[in-house]
Protein 1
Amino acid sequence: MAHVAPWKYKFVEKLVKLSKEYPVIGVVNINNIPAAQMQKMRRELKDKAVFIVGKNRLIKIAFEKSPRENLEELSKFIEGQTGVIFTKINAFKLAKLMEKTKTKAPAKGGEIAPEDIIVPAGETSFKPGPIISELQKVGLPAAVQKGKIVIRKDTVVVKKGEKISRDVAQVLTKLEIYPMTVGLDLRAAYEDGTVFPKDILQVDTEKVYGDVVNAIQYAINLSVNAVWPTTLTMPIIIGDAYRKALNLAVNAGIVTKETAEMILAKAYMNMLSLASVIPDGIDEELKSLISNRPSPPVSDKEEGEKEEKQEESGKDEEEEEKSEEEAIAGLGALFG
């Protein structure tokens, strides 16, 4: 029987113990994370989770030995360089926490481009010199203008899915373009006997919040229109009923302490409107009230129509006067 190093037993036992203590367990990809950034991530997670890195086979054995139901299903997501996160925050919050660990990093050469890598047109910080040949070597349209090296147009130096060469990586770093994203990439998480893959855990919380708010608004409108009282809608329903009752009472002339003032104001305005169309029989005080009553605002269109009518009226009067003069002249000729 092959000898197994004692540290391996201890490592498995440690993971099994942690799996009992923490309800949520995540498997993260730690490929290509520099040591300095890894230490920084560990410090950031210290108060929120336990982060363990070890051999994949030992992690799988620990998952199989754990009393947690269905935890061995998480082993399907263990490949390459893997770390394990033990925490008490739920799986979806853990996914958000992992996203916050990600930062932009320079390419070293040999990586696969996650997206098209574009060098934008414009002036660089470089003065004319040997670097112009380095830029041109990787396909950048570099030229000298006003004592500076410029990139004449936006240029895709590496397409998505292609390998980044060492020469391109060096040029991108000099241009301060960092195409790689480095951080803890959560592949899957376990909680309450269920394993959640990465695509399920990536939830747009802002969209979900907006959908919930819209749903609440639609539900409130439905409840109010259907007069379905709830703790939330009862004040709205009562307010709406009060306004409708008040409007009905005013229009029906039902006098109460709430409607008396409005009914009197309505009667007063109706009285002025009626008096304004009566030519005679009103006293001077009433005439003064009518004349001082504010006129409704006149729109530009109405003002234009008014001017046109005045012009047409003037023309009609001129034509009438001309006709009268012609008629008089005709009578003079007849009896002269």
Protein 2
Amino acid sequence: MADNLKVEDGHVVSMHYTLHVDGKVVDSSEGGEPLQFIQGMGHIIPGLEHQLYEMKIGDSKKVVVAAKDGYGEEDAEAFMDVPRESFPETVPLQKGTELELRDQSDHPVYARIDSISDENVRLNMNHPLAGKELHFDVKIASLRPATEEEISHGHVHDHGHSH
């Protein structure tokens, strides 16, 4: 019976969540579709994934994830000074401005302005939630075993949508 399904590796979990950091909501699925992922495949941050085992449909839980089990501690090496004149005029040079850059392999890299001097702009390449304790409110919306195809592809397939 589907009634006694619990979160375990190889199950597709649909989960509503709200993430609070420093007392503010930074992300939430409320009012939208739940997050879907295959448990045990590292699709979500490890500190949260580990806490979901044994939960059933309709179960709610508060999960506190330490920085090291979330987005990592802030890396003091992940700062970069860029000459001010290399910024396009469209970029507001203010602390906290978020930028999307491209690395050598053309992958997006996110950074935000940490400080500005006369010559340089210092960029912080850390994830915005690095070094932060994460407070999740989670609720399991639905559960089902993943199909063999989903497991082999490593992601959830929407039924009725062809990719």
Protein 3
Amino acid sequence: MWNSSENQVTLVFIRHGQTQANKERRYLGKKDESLLESGKEVLLSYKEQNIYPTVEYLFTSPMKRCVETANILYPELCPVVIPEWEEIDFGRFENKNYEELKDDIQYQAWLESGGVLDFPEGESREKFILRCKRGFIRICDEVRQDIESDSSKSVRVGMIVHGGTIMALLSLYGEKQYFDYQVLNGRGYICNLTGWGNSMQIKEITRI
């Protein structure tokens, strides 16, 4: 059986590189945008600085910006795509920035709610977190099955995802709130997974 007190599972969350919408500070959710050339260069610069740890497993959102980032950072690995890790659906706010939305009554209501209200014609944060959770449980189960025969095995699991995916999972299994885990493009977190099932926790969260 898999024993979380003996196995060491390190999680490496990395947000994808910068896209044009990111550069313009637009809400980028369902729009499937590729990385900017400058975004690729920044990733390569970070990689040369050795800020990204090696990983044995690699999972990614299906969206171009994440798959491209995975191929740049870990070209030797073939990432497993997790459909549930697509970014949140921003609905009417998609591909717009603050300047374009500041006079929108629904946007002002969303801001005043602390970002808790559902996105108009989009997705609720609650449903998004549950969607991300389903994907996370599946990848944890895959890793668990692989290492349960060796109680002393330690592994590092890389996840190339969206800022929203990171906030969803760390707020669910960590100790802080959703927006506490905001992170820049190409950056992320290294942390430890403990427990299994309903007892899963993510601890010792440090920034990349």
